[in-house]
Design brief:
alpha/beta, Glucose Oxidase, domain 1, nine-stranded mixed beta sheet, two-stranded antiparallel sheet, 20% strand, globular, 2 domains
Length: 300
């Protein structure tokens, strides 16, 4: 690792990395891809039973005590507040943001204590999160999306655990559909591994196929800004080099400011052979958060 980390090409104060490449012109070009108004929801339903990496959890509780309190108000009706008997319930949610379909912020992964653009943990850590690189810095995303159906290319229902998706695999997928990666694109991979989601969680979490390190660097060179798979992380597990766990997302986040989405639902896109679309991903801007639960869309 360089002494001061990997300097960003977008300036010493940059916090959004490759998303700088999504210009108004790229957004307009993505919108022109919409012809039918068909929407594909790429997000998974989130609850406490979804497969989770060790140490992560999601809990949700219903709070209904307003039904009791409202009946004790001076101006209460027979079944609630006021003559109209209004009541409400709310829910309390707590859990890690790296659950279900989620976008990782650039404060999620580090090399040692070094984040993207040379930020250091000791300089940006606060009790509530980080003072730099949190989800509040990440712009809402609308851009051109591509699906590379590697499982379909290899005539497989799903790629095997640990399969390394190569640059050759990606180029063959693109050539098969007459597409090229353009600067600002979101490139998604269908591996078929998502078939195990909530059906066989043990198998889903036992490993995964994924883009290799060479492919990750190639995506950056091509000008892509974001990528994701129908898997719980990004990159093959077991890794290409057993001594370098999670090297692919770490390298993309820390060295390049490149964004990753995990646990995508890509099966419907692959089934309908939709390989180019407008990609939409919005998120809650939680200050200092290391990720966000998201429901990305592919619109055709």
């Amino acid at each position: 690792m360089p002494k001061n980390g990997w300097p960003a090409p977008y300036g010493a104060d940059d916090q959004i990395g490759t998303l700088n490449e999504i210009t108004p012109a790229r957004v307009a070009a993505a919108a022109r891809l919409v012809r039918q108004g068909q929407i594909y929801d790429l997000g998974r339903i989130l609850d406490e039973h979804v497969p989770a990496f060790p140490g992560r959890s999601f809990r949700q509780h219903l709070v209904s005590n307003a039904h009791l309190i409202n009946r004790r108000r001076p101006d209460a009706g027979p079944a609630g507040w006021g003559e109209n008997n209004v009541n409400w319930i709310v829910d309390v949610i707590y859990g890690t943001s790296q659950m279900g379909t989620h976008l990782d912020a650039l404060n999620h992964l580090q090399s040692g204590d070094c984040f993207y653009n040379g930020y250091r943990l000791g300089d940006i850590a606060e009790e509530w999160g980080t003072s730099r690189l949190g989800m509040e810095t990440v712009p809402q995303i609308i851009t051109r999306g591509l699906l590379l159906d590697v499982a379909g290319l290899l005539r497989a229902d799903f790629l095997p655990r640990g399969y390394v998706i190569t640059v050759d695999d990606a180029e063959r997928c693109l050539a098969r559909h007459g597409l090229q990666i353009q600067r600002g694109d979101a490139v998604l991979f269908h591996t078929g591994w998502g078939r195990f989601w909530m059906k066989d969680n043990d198998t889903y979490l036992s490993g995964q196929p994924g883009p290799g390190l060479a492919l990750g660097r190639w995506l950056v060179e091509q000008g892509a800004v974001l990528s994701g798979c129908d898997t719980w992380s990004y990159g093959p597990v077991p890794p290409e080099d057993p001594s370098r766990p999670f090297a692919v997302p770490q390298t993309l986040n820390v060295e390049h400011g490149f964004f990753i989405v995990e646990n995508l639902a890509t099966a419907e896109l692959a089934r309908d052979q939709v390989y180019e679309f407008m990609f939409v991903l919005t998120h809650a801007r939680v200050r200092g958060a290391t990720g966000a639960w998201v429901a990305p869309l592919a619109v055709t």
